[in-house]
Amino acid sequence: MFNIERKVQATVTDNGSNFVKAFREFGQREEVEEGGQDGNEDAGFEDVGTILDGEGEDEGLQFCLPPHHCCASHTLNLIASKDLERAVPQGATRKLFYSAMAKCSAIWNKAHRSRLAAEAVEEIGKMKLIIPCVTWWNSEYNAVQKIVSLTDAQLAEVCERLAVPKLLANELAFLNEYAEVLNPLACALDLLQGETKCFLGLVIPTLQTLKKRLSDKKPHVRFFSEVIDTVIKAIDSRFQKWFSSREAKLATASSPQFRLWWLP
Questions:
Q1: Residue 167 has what pLDDT?
Q2: pTM of the predicted model, to two decimals?
Q3: Cross-referenced PANTHER family, in alphabetical order (predicted)?
């Protein structure tokens, strides 16, 4: 009635295996078939309930889901939480990574469990600490950023008041570089998980800009050179379907041209 099969260009879901399987089995085929340039000329949509009830089988309609994309923010979060997690604690940075994050965790745990400890941090730093959430990597990044925003004197006082081990100079240097290098990744995640201004046409430009920002930082880093390489390779690998997607390319071309000047 509404010719919706010609209007829906793609469907975006989370990365759940149930969605992936459904679109793999019932989605449009990418192969070019006779009768249509993209193999979609004869494609039609039918009510799922009708199919399940066994009705409408003689009408010749074929149930077909539109092209499918996994959620870009979920995929980028996988890079930040999984690929990055495997890349950071390697080589000479392994011990430094674990020691620095363990001391940060001690501060977060004390501030989370004790009202007096939280008030002490607010009194010293004039701010509230962020407690990381295991689900989204951004929360860990923001929590680290809060800690490194304190001056050396403030951080030393916080550790003393909370009775936790103090961060050493090389651990602070590591955390500062962590916050600096991964800032573009955190900003890209904030954009792609937005609810009001996130469109299909923003995905490819955001990823390309993120890769460039990370590459630009590589000559100036001390600890994160291999991490940057790992993240860029993971973007190319995990977003391969996005970069080759006809729908994503068309959406990018038809979107208003813009520059992600705010992406650090």
A1: 95
A2: 0.73
A3: PTHR47501:SF6, TRANSPOSASE-RELATED (PTHR47501)
